[in-house]
Write a structure and sequence with these properties.
- With 342 residues, the protein is mainly α.
- It contains 15 helices and no strands.
- The longest helix has 34 residues.
- The chain is globular.
């Protein structure tokens, strides 16, 4: 399948093909939900998504690899080095690192704004020194670089049926919604790294604080105040999903099944958290395999339907061109094929 994807995308240089393949491996290994949704895109668009994921994963590993003995200073220098090499790659310099080679190629193919990568790396660097946030407003500034820009990077690859700037706020909101869900799912693991992405104002509103979260994580004892914090955070997360939802219909029809599937699977993590009594400090909530399979199948059906309509439309247009000047349609003749919304 990798060969088919690369051929469809017009990627023929052997070194570049190897770079994209490396990014695909990272996506399949570490981003199960993301990778599953990506499989619903047309084959020619998948390599670009793998490249975007691969670079984000590379930066995330520098910051969060628990098996690494690197100090915060060493991690900061590694991020700066990564940024220097990315900037050189975006300017056209040869890149030795696969994820940079693939990302630079993708950015050029889809005219992705380079500032989106700069903003992303800025937020990654802040993770090395910032362990908490006072308010949702403060957290939002961090999430612009860590999440919103991911949605904006994806938008040129997915395509839109409206001017891109009209779809951009929804794409940014979806990136934020996904990351808020990750924060809730991974709150225990993040605490182990010295971070808490639930704002202090939210904790205080429910009579909790960071020390109580750490105590619960270390002792395994549940606390009703923590449960209410997580419940409120999940409710806030759902409002962001609602803000993002209208953006799916603004995407190119062939991309909608992919994004809809990711939307349903990620928001389904909130359902799993609720079903587990909001015990995120002690267990990692997951969407059941049967549910994942059902959502993926629905996405596949939608993807096939859109592509079938697209092929019929293309065939009809080709037939019309070969038939010469258009003639009035006879009474009772079938209407032209029209692209359906998904």
């Amino acid at each position: 399948m990798t060969v088919r994807e690369l051929d469809a995308a017009g990627i023929h240089d052997p070194a570049l093909r190897a770079a994209y393949t490396r990014c695909r491996v990272l996506n399949a290994r570490h981003g199960r939900t993301y990778f599953l949704a990506t499989r619903l895109l047309p084959v020619d668009r998948r390599p670009a998504v793998h490249a975007l994921y691969g670079f984000a994963r590379r930066a995330d590993d520098i910051v969060d690899d628990l098996d690494s003995t690197a100090t915060p200073g060493e991690r900061a220098r590694a991020l700066l080095d990564l940024e220097d090499r990315l900037e050189a790659g975006l300017r056209g310099a040869p890149a030795a690192e696969p994820v940079i080679r693939a990302l630079a190629d993708t950015a050029g193919r889809y005219a992705i704004d380079h500032r989106l990568f700069t903003d992303f790396l800025r937020s990654m660097r802040s993770d090395l020194t910032v362990g908490g946030y006072a308010s949702y407003e403060e957290l939002g500034r961090y999430m612009h670089g860590s999440a919103a820009v991911i949605g904006l990077q994806m938008l040129p690859v997915l395509g839109t049926v409206v001017p891109r700037e009209e779809a951009a706020p929804h794409a940014a909101a979806l990136g934020v919604a996904f990351q808020l869900t990750n924060f809730l799912r991974d709150v225990g693991e993040d605490l182990d790294r010295g971070r808490l992405y639930l704002p202090a104002e939210l904790l205080a509103a429910h009579g909790a604080d960071r020390e109580r979260f750490e105590w619960s994580r270390n002792t395994g004892v549940r606390d009703s105040r923590i449960r209410e914090v997580v419940r409120a955070a999940a409710a806030h997360n759902r409002t962001v999903y609602r803000a993002a939802l209208p953006g799916i219909s603004l995407l190119a029809p062939v991309s909608r099944p992919c994004v809809r599937t990711a939307f349903v699977l990620y928001s389904g993590i909130l359902d799993a958290i609720e079903a587990d009594g909001y015990a995120v400090l002690h267990r990692r909530a997951v969407v059941p395999r049967r549910r994942r399979a059902a959502v993926a199948l629905d996405g596949l059906v939608r993807a096939v339907a859109v592509r079938t309509v697209g092929r019929r439309r293309a065939d009809a247009m080709a037939a019309a061109r070969s038939a010469g000047p258009s003639r009035p349609r006879e009474v009772g003749a079938p209407a032209p094929v029209r692209e359906e919304a998904v």
